[in-house]
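hey can u check if this looks right to u? its 230 residues, i copy pasted from the old doc so theres a chance i mangled smth
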Amino acid sequence: MRKNISVILFLFILANITFADDISNIEKYTNENGLNSHRNSLGVNFGSTIFYTLIAPSIANIVVPSNNREHLKLQGTFALDLTYTFRIFEKMDFNLDAGFYSMKTYYNNSSYEYNGNVYGIGFSLGSRFYINNKDRASGFFLMPKLGGTLFITQGKEYKKSTMSYTNLNSNIFDFYISGEIGFRIDISRGLGINSGVRPFLDISIIDIGFSYKSIIRVVPLPRFAIGILF
């Protein structure tokens, strides 16, 4: 009887040690692979679309209205950004954005009439710092960043006194430093680190900083991005 009890006790202790080792290995695997899993993200930012086609033209046309009802002084036609992040630490991402924008411009006075297009090629580099109570790259973030935009203008100016046209083309580069405040929502994080790709949603409240051309840079709703983590 004592021999049987000893065997049962030995097996019980062995099972507990094995189970503890398994738990330890699972925790070790999770901790080691938490940073290595889903370190990349790629998405499409529709915030630029909203800003360059709706917000910026609306503000410009309210502040400086056109005297011709058929032509707005500024009209957004297209804007789209691609956004990429790479996780450097548990709560820090490297962020890269690149995009293309286009707008129509118009003015008319007693001497001149102008019709043109503005094309923008923008980029920015930044570091996202996530502020949360867990070691994860999601939730509220602050992002200091450096960026620039190359504006290419192409247009024709009509001089009414001579009835002649002049081509007015120029390239303007604007450099800026700013800070962005927003949220990243990891939609299906509960699926775990072995879940393959996971969708995410980025929403930024404001991007504010200093610009070489305009001095003060304020961009409301700079980011509304949808993409995947992998």
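The beta strands are 40-45, 74-89, 92-108, 112-130, 139-159, 164-186, 198-211, 215-220, 224-229.
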